[in-house]
Amino acid sequence: MRTKTKKLSEKIITFIIENISGDDGRSDVTEESIAAHFRVSRTPVREVLKHLEHNGIIQTRRSKGIFSKNFTREDVENIYEVRTVLEELAAKDAVKSITPQVLKELRTYARITKEARKKRDRRKSNEADRLFHETIMELSGNGYLKRIVKEIRMVTTSFIPASKLFYLNNKDRNPYSHDKIVKALATRNPEAAAWVIKNHICWIKNNILESLEKNGKRDQGKK
Amino acid sequence: MRTKTKKLSEKIITFIIENISGDDGRSDVTEESIAAHFRVSRTPVREVLKHLEHNGIIQTRRSKGIFSKNFTREDVENIYEVRTVLEELAAKDAVKSITPQVLKELRTYARITKEARKKRDRRKSNEADRLFHETIMELSGNGYLKRIVKEIRMVTTSFIPASKLFYLNNKDRNPYSHDKIVKALATRNPEAAAWVIKNHICWIKNNILESLEKNGKRDQGKK
DNA sequence: ATATATTACTATGTATGCAAAATAGCACAA
DNA sequence: TTGTGCTATTTTGCATACATAGTAATATAT
Known about the structure:
homodimer; 223 residues; mainly alpha; Arc Repressor Mutant, subunit A; Four Helix Bundle (Hemerythrin (Met), subunit A); 2 domains; 10 helices; 4% strand; disordered C terminus
């Protein structure tokens, strides 16, 4: 169980995503501040930052600090278009190797997600949601696909910073639910599974777009 | 025309991909040697290395140096599976905004690729091939898709190091040629375009698998 | 001659220091 | 008050120096 080694960079990533803003002026998140927070030097922090910058999650402006990318409606649509075809692919591959055990596991995650959401336990519901999708990825047997979708999930997560993270609770439930995904997978019909996944993600996308429109009006004028 | 700034990291990437090997023992490619070659310090080199390592192209072993990943047949299939659905997506989107001008441009790249390949001018044919595919990406209007496919192309390029790069010349031509892709795009039928692209890439994948099998036998036993 | 312990070396990981760029604050003049 | 130029400050970019881990080679004992 190797956990300690990798965890630092993961922690730094989480920390950054949760703390950065896209405002102008000076950012209170700097290489120095992150380094100080984790009691390391700037060097390892920089490596994480470069990674995030490369993935388009942050942008660093010299002598100003680190800022979140202000995603446009188009950006969100583009990224979700990519994520959709990749999760469809995963679902299609997953049906080939599905087992009763895994189906049971998926149902458990689906149940936990639903219950936690009902109780407004955002952290727990997100965690179970993540496990649900990652299990399907795992099932696809395609390690590269798994890795790349994980990256994309990191981007989409950053769309909705913690401060704005209310959208899930205020909305109706996703009509293309995890339960329906499980049912489709159980039929072992690739196209059916892909269809449900596609609609599932499409619903999430629309939800995020709505949320961004509600929250993001003020960011409009700024360059 | 900002070229100088970004070029260094691009050059470093090219240099690394062209020089690393997957052998055991000590590598002659080290942070130090790369830094010395480009007359910079290890710091900027490390940033590029971390990026490549993250993309799964290289692996760095402490006190041994930098090595290429030894891709298995399964890795190649996984990565090409991902690339295929993404290029299909690009083609489907591209037909929406295709114009006679772009079709002409694509035909030009197709012609140059073909001619250069006939003359065994590998560099030129690769360049034109890249432009062909990137033009379709551009046409899709999805910047994120464009970026992510570019990354994947970097990985697939690293499958076949320069030293082994003969496969293209020794084989029959791709039956799902660039010409046929252009024709399919011209019909503005998304499914048709995606179908040709899919087969085009599938042919390349099989070609690479064959080449790896011929060249890579010796890498088998090693961990 | 072979196996093992010790030592020197090599290359990465991390920290620190210095240079450059861009901003923000302040003084001063109109 | 408002605009302009200078200076100090902030923060990134790059370089260097030190710490650590893993390897290879040598020496020693059996």
